[in-house]
Every structure is written in structure tokens, then in C-alpha cells.
Amino acid sequence: MIKAGIIGSTGYAGSEIVRLLLGHKDAEIRWFGSRSYIDRKYADIYQNFFQLVDAACMDDNMDALADQVDVIFTATPQGLCASLVKEEILSKVKIIDLSADFRIKDVDKYEKWYGITHPSPEYIKEAVYGLCEINREQVKKARLIANPGCYPTCSTLSLYPLLKEGLIDGNTVIIDAKSGTSGAGRGAKVDNLFCEVNENMKAYGVATHRHTPEIEDQLSYAAGEEITINFTPHLVPMNRGILVTAYASLKKNVSYEEVKAVYDNYYAEETFVRVLEKDVCPQTKWVEGSNYVDVNFKLDPRTNRIIVMGAMDNLVKGAAGQAVQNMNLMFGLPETEGLLQVPMFP
Q1: What is the pLDDT of residue 188?
Q2: Which of 229, 235, 124 minimizes the C-alpha distance to 175?
Q3: For the chain, how far is it from start to end, CA to CA, in angstroms?
Q4: Assigned CATH for 151-313
Q5: Which of 31, 138, 224, 333 has its CA 20 to 30 A from that of 53?
């Protein structure tokens, strides 16, 4: 049985890790960390866990935690995990970090986009970017995982086969993305109040969103060359879900059948990436509460462009589900263990 500890267990991503691990037959939670709710019963904060979790919240003492568990999930703001991690801890326990601390390999780029000084840049090179469908073998051997961001996960998986096969010009990629409000976290902010969000849609972080360099890095690795994109996220009045619509210029004339064969070649054996049938557009409602990503594409011969679409749950495949998927790989378990929940509808 894998013993797990969660630092940041009372945020949305942290509580989703709790939900998934309670249904995992090979894992148990030993530590519910939350700096904001020390000594409060976890089920008092999230009543959906009433009579399912009896534990109280503890502090984020990673040194003490490393002596009690096999894996630590850090669902915390940027900079916290990097300020706590050290060799003594990594020699005892595996860490899956849900923040951006170790996702970007260029420390100067990280500090520019996130506006903070990186506390432990010596671990950036070692950290494995935990997009399982692409870095599966590296994840299996890792002791420190940089769990990908939600927008980067959906964007990368949607576009990866096209870039890897050289079918599109990466520097023409434009990504238009929509997210539910849980992506902004649980902290109290005026912009997230009901009256601000309800009956409203808006773009935010235009040309400045922090996920931009992460997406560019992953697309560049796929293409084998430096790529610069336009990425614009939007907030929509729903709890969960991400929808990515990406546009790119084709490098050559291709048929639907040729492109579909490329996607099938990359994802036919991937449980959590579902390539939809022709002309079926991904929708967030068909992936809600699950670890699945639905992708599809449409060729536009008139403009010589391809339109790529992806939908997923930002809290599951975009955060907690992907973290558990990484844990499964790191400990030699079936990759799908604890993650085969059927999407919820309605």
C-alpha cells in the first residue's frame, strides 16, 4: 500500500487528489496538509467527505512528512514546493508537484513569467515533466515530477501528433482556450464572485498568461525547433472543464484520413486520450469528473489551416488525475488504477 501525503489538501486540486485516492485500491492518505486549516477536521471543510475522512488537517512540514509516507503531492502556490524540497527529502520520498516550480527548464524564463526568484533551481533539470502519454518512461524512473498545468495538458495533447509528424507550422499556432472558474483556485477574489462570473465570459491574461512559456516549451520539444504561439485563455461561468480550440497552417496538403491515421497512431493505445469520430466536436460535459481528454480536428482547405479541439476536466486530467496517473507509473502500478471513473452527466 502506497502511503501518500498531500500538502495543500484543502484547495480544489488537493481535494480532488483526496477524492481520487479514496477510490484507489493501492494507496492510502496519511497526511492532509493545509496551512490555513491546521487542526480542523478535513470533513468540516469539505462535507462531501463526511464519514469518509476522519483526519484533521496538519501543517506543511515536508521534513516530518517525508518520514511517514512514500509520495508527497504538493498542490500549492508557485514557489512553496521549491522552497521546501531538498536532497534529504528526495532521498526518502517521491514528490509530485502540481505547481509550476519545475515545469520550465529555463530558470530565467520561469522567474520572468512568474515574478519570483526560484528557491531551488538545482532540481529543475532533474524534474520530469509529468505528461504521461509523452514522457511515460522518464516518469517511471523519476523522484520529482512537475505535474503539467491544465491549459498546457489540453493544448499539448491536442497538437502533439501534428507537430511531431511535421504537418503544421508551429509558429502559426493560435490557441483559444476556455476554462471553468475552479481553475482560478479556491482563494477569495472579486473576479471570481458569482455576480462577476455568472452570465459573463471574458478573456484574461491576454499575451501574458503564465502557461504560455510552458505550452511553447512542450510544443517546441515536439516540433524539434523553437516555437512561439499566441495563447488566449477565457473564463466561462461553469465549475469545471477546459476547451481548447487551436489553429495552425498546414505544411502540405493532407486528407482527413491521413490526419486521422496520425492521431490514431499516437493515441490508439492511450486509455485517457479519446480521438473522436469525424465531425464530432469535443465538449466539456462529456469529460467532466474524469481523467479523459477528448480531441478532434477539422481541415479547412479554404485557408490551408487545421482546427484542432480538445476538452478535459481541469481538476482531473488537468491536475489531480494526472498527478495520480504519475504516481501509478512511479510505483509500477497499472497506469489507470483509481482513474477509470466514467465522466459525469448531467
Answers
A1: 79
A2: 229
A3: 34
A4: 3.30.360.10
A5: 333
Active site residue 154: no
In this structure, the chain runs to a length of 346
pLDDT attached to residue 175: 98
pTM value > 0.85: yes
Domain spans in the chain, listed from the N-terminal domain onward: 2-126, 151-313
The pLDDT score that the predictor gives to residue 105 is 97
Residue 168 contacts residue 225 (beta carbons within 8 Å) = no
Across the chain, which has 346 residues, the per-10-residue mean pLDDT values are 97 98 98 95 98 96 95 96 97 98 97 97 98 98 98 98 98 98 88 92 96 98 98 97 98 97 98 98 98 98 98 98 98 98 96
2-126: what fold? Rossmann fold (3.40.50)
H helices present in the chain, as ranges: 12-22, 42-45, 62-66, 80-84, 87-90, 107-114, 132-140, 150-164, 194-197, 211-223, 256-267, 321-330
Active-site position among 57, 81, 132, 150:
150
Give the DSSP per-residue string, 217-256. Answer: HHHHHHHTS----EEEEEE-SSSS-EEEEEEEEBSS---H
What is the grid cell recorded at 331? 510505483
